[in-house]
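Reminder to self: tokens first, then the designed residues, so the page reads top to bottom the way the pipeline ran.
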């Protein structure tokens, strides 16, 4: 897959020149309509296979939660088969160029029912294990191919500087060295696993003022390079074939029209030879006239445009701009050559139709093997922040009360970008895996679930229970809907939801858990007051101000968004494994203090230091 930067330079040159020859031969046969079609990426709900052929469409995507049929791998394979077959018909008006279908497999192929859902990136940042990240990439690639798909919009290489950002959980860390240390490994895992990777979002997405999604990153160039550009270096060196542009701005200039960042820095200075994709409706705000907006994006260096619905307008608008000479034909040729290069270099032309591929039809999908990797990732991602009186590890024979809104809720564990764009709550939609409660029940026969219809009576006191595990935290969210900021709509039109009054709201106005979810501290205090030692497990996409909850708890564990394998939590709470997770970003306390610095994390008593 990684033929641009092979370890054997001599043969790499031969391979690269073979790729170039094929690309140029194909390009020479293409009409302007065919070229613009390759540059166009509609969303599946808005384009049929027949239209893919008629308009020479080069790529189709699934927006978060946009799933065919019953949302099983077989439904995805059938859909991809139909698009692929349309793209491969060859006749007088149409060239056979395989479609490249893209999905957000950002923590496993988690849009699909029954997938293995890995912890979101913030938890992997806590694990400090690049080898694990590469294995997750490989397993994810296998589950993506099982659905007949060839491309994922991952990894996110954002360096999240402010936990108020709704996408903090998509970032491995606030530390660019940690993000950079993972970047090459995740790209290698995905691409050697047979799926094209997409490093995103170029660039500065995690550095916006106030953590506002799609906001403005106000830093000088040295800082932009040191913090936000740096992690892309190992990703490109490992051969990441595509890059997605950020919906944010740099010092007031939108990245989608930023010629310097895309053409000069990424493609010029850094030598990126793959193609650059715009983000969801990222072109729309660049100009009032859609054709002019398209021209601005393409002239800035964007090669493929994610136009979920307005793809016909894009095709007509870009064509007009080329005819007017606003967009040079040379730029179009460069964009299409890059797209074809990725399709050739990734082996797409050699692949059989999706239904006939060895890796498709559900092979490896949601397998025990992948779930074991995910469970390992869960236990390595947990960060122990407090353990008064050595309440942890719990004894497997102990009478443990398990409660809290996230105790038995696989949807909440998985967070956003799982089945739905904004994620789901409850257990039904997450097929396979274990809730945190199910994991505890499996190792501790004396454990009892309170709440969720499991036990009606309130627990009395410490004579009845040796300890309580209270699982609290955030509800699932994605993107701007996860922001913490003053009320007000997220910038409309750049989201997956229809814009409308009151629809696009941030998660809350403060990082203080007691204010976001006051029920949590009540539960923790109520049990602690009865003399029951409380182990609080926080399920959240970011560090939260949890002073009150911590003060009332004997032990406190940051579990991030662990995904489908909740059993990894019991592995550590009951001492089968030690805590190895370290904070990937500083943990805030009341006021403006940092309560625990990045790198903090306790181990079980008696462990080697
Ligand atoms: C997000 C991208 C994602 C795309 C496609 C956008 O809203 O910003 O990260 O890949 O949607 O779902």
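Designed residues (609 positions):
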């Amino acid at each position: 897959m990684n033929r641009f930067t092979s370890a054997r330079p001599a043969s790499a040159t031969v391979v690269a020149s073979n790729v170039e020859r094929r690309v140029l031969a194909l390009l020479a046969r293409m009409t302007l309509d065919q070229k613009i079609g390759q540059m166009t990426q509609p969303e599946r709900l808005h384009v049929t296979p027949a239209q893919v052929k008629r308009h020479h469409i080069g790529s189709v995507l699934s927006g978060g939660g946009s799933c065919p049929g019953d949302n099983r791998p077989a439904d995805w394979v059938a859909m991809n088969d139909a698009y692929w077959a349309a793209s491969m018909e060859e006749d007088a008006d149409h060239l056979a160029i395989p479609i490249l279908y893209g999905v957000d497999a950002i923590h496993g192929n988690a849009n699909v029912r029954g997938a293995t859902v890995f912890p979101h990136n913030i938890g992997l940042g806590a694990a400090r294990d690049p080898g694990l990240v590469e294995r997750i990439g490989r397993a994810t690639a296998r589950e993506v191919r099982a659905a007949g798909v060839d491309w994922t919009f991952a990894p996110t290489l954002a360096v999240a500087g402010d936990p108020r950002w709704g996408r903090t959980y998509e970032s491995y860390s606030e530390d660019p060295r940690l993000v950079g240390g993972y970047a090459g490994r995740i790209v290698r895992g995905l691409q050697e696993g047979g799926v094209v990777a997409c490093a995103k979002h170029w660039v500065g997405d995690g550095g916006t003022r106030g953590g506002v999604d799609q906001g403005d990153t106000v830093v000088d160039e040295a800082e932009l390079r040191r913090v936000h550009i740096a992690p892309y270096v190992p990703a490109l060196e490992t051969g990441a074939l595509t890059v997605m542009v950020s919906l944010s701005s740099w010092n007031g200039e939108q990245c989608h029209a930023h010629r310097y960042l895309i053409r000069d820095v990424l493609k010029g200075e850094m030598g990126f030879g793959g193609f650059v994709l715009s983000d969801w409706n990222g072109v729309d705000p660049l100009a009032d006239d859609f054709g002019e907006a398209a021209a601005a994006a393409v002239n800035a260096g964007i090669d493929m445009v994610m136009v979920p619905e307005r793809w016909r307008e894009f095709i007509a608008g870009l064509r007009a701009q080329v005819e007017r000479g606003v967009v040079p034909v040379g730029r179009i040729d460069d964009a299409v050559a890059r797209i074809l290069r990725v399709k050739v270099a990734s082996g797409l032309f050699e692949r059989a139709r999706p239904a006939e591929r060895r890796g498709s039809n559900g092979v490896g999908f949601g397998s025990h093997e992948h779930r074991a990797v995910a469970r390992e990732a869960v236990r390595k991602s947990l960060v122990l922040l407090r353990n008064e009186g050595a309440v942890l590890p719990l004894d497997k024979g102990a009478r443990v009360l398990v409660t809290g809104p996230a105790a038995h809720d696989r949807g909440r564990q998985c967070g956003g970008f799982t089945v739905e764009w904004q994620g789901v709550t409850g257990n039904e939609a997450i097929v396979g895996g274990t809730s945190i409660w199910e994991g505890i029940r499996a190792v501790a026969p004396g454990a009892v679930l309170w709440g969720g219809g499991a036990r009606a009576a309130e627990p009395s006191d410490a004579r009845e229970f040796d300890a309580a595990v209270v699982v609290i935290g955030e509800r699932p969210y994605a993107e701007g809907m996860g922001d913490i900021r003053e009320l007000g709509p997220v910038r409309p039109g750049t989201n997956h939801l229809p814009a409308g009054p009151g629809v696009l709201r941030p998660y809350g106005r403060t990082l203080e858990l007691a204010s976001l979810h006051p029920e949590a501290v009540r539960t923790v205090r109520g049990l602690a007051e009865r003399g029951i030692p409380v182990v609080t497990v926080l399920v959240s996409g970011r560090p939260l101000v949890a002073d009150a909850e911590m003060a009332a708890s004997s032990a406190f564990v940051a579990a991030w968004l662990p995904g489908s394998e909740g059993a990894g939590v019991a592995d550590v709470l009951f001492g089968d494994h030690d805590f190895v997770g370290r904070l990937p970003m500083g943990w805030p306390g009341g006021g403006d203090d940092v309560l625990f610095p990045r790198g903090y994390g306790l181990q079980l008593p008696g462990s080697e230091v």
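The CA atoms of residues 455 and 580 lie 33 Å apart.
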